[in-house]
Automatic annotation (TrEMBL):
It comes from the Bacteria. It is an enzyme of class 2 (transferase). GO terms for molecular function: nicotinate-nucleotide adenylyltransferase activity. It catalyses: nicotinate beta-D-ribonucleotide + ATP + H(+) = deamido-NAD(+) + diphosphate. InterPro entries: Cyt_trans-like, NadD/NMNAT, Rossmann-like_a/b/a_fold. It comes from Paracoccus spongiarum. Its EC number is 2.7.7.18. This is Probable nicotinate-nucleotide adenylyltransferase.
Amino acid sequence: MTRGFPLARPGMRIGLLGGSFDPAHEGHVHITETARRRFCLDRVWWLVSPGNPLKAHGPAPLAERMATARRLLDDPAVIVTDVEMRLGTRLTADTIAALTRHYPGVRFVWLMGSDNLCQFHLWDRWREIAAMVPIGVLARPGTRIPARNAVAAQILRRWRLPQDQAGSLARRRPPAWVLINLPMKSHSSSAIRAARSGVAEGARR
Ligand SMILES: Nc1ncnc2c1ncn2[C@@H]1O[C@H](COP(=O)(O)OP(=O)(O)OP(=O)(O)O)[C@@H](O)[C@H]1O
Ligand SMILES: O=C(O)c1ccc[n+]([C@@H]2O[C@H](COP(=O)([O-])O)[C@@H](O)[C@H]2O)c1
């Protein structure tokens, strides 16, 4: 196994939660716990991104974001990793292709909040992503209903599984996806950053 890469055995079901985690928050923890349970995952990897290809401004340094994420977690089944930086990939299609090559036999599931499903059709080679791995979508305040009618959701509608089949998602041959309704948490990294800069602004006055 390559140095710095998380360990995984063939047959394991691993959820991939990609994100800027700038910073990580309770919302991430909550959807991770729900995804683990509902999709019967052995592990969830938090792929701390070197930078979202669709976001104009770069995030805080990667090491800082990883350290904050690790402090927040209390579950050995959730691994915080900078594997995208190690692979040299930023685009999700490239990351998934590289991980599938590196970890033959591992069953990866891409995880995302419903806000991301709303703009999934803007991601690079999004149809390839849907053809490579099953996708688990977790409801997020404000986008639970819009996500059902999102462009990608419409195009992929015949591969959508009912929620009561979520436990089989990792075993499914892609395309396959599920939208999970859960008690939603409104935490967001941008709100945390805005609150911090408001505090810093106040302190300067
Ligand atoms: N409160 C939440 N409920 C559901 N999904 C969430 C929540 N917060 C984050 N996510 C999902 O977690 C993944 C990583 O999120 P990210 O690191 O971008 O945090 P964020 O809070 O969405 O950041 P920002 O506010 O800067 O956009 C994304 O798929 C996002 O949809
Ligand atoms: O590959 C793409 O085109 C693409 C476009 C937007 C977002 N993503 C990925 O989606 C994940 C969530 O991104 P973010 O910045 O909203 O946390 C993260 O892993 C990004 O790399 C990927």
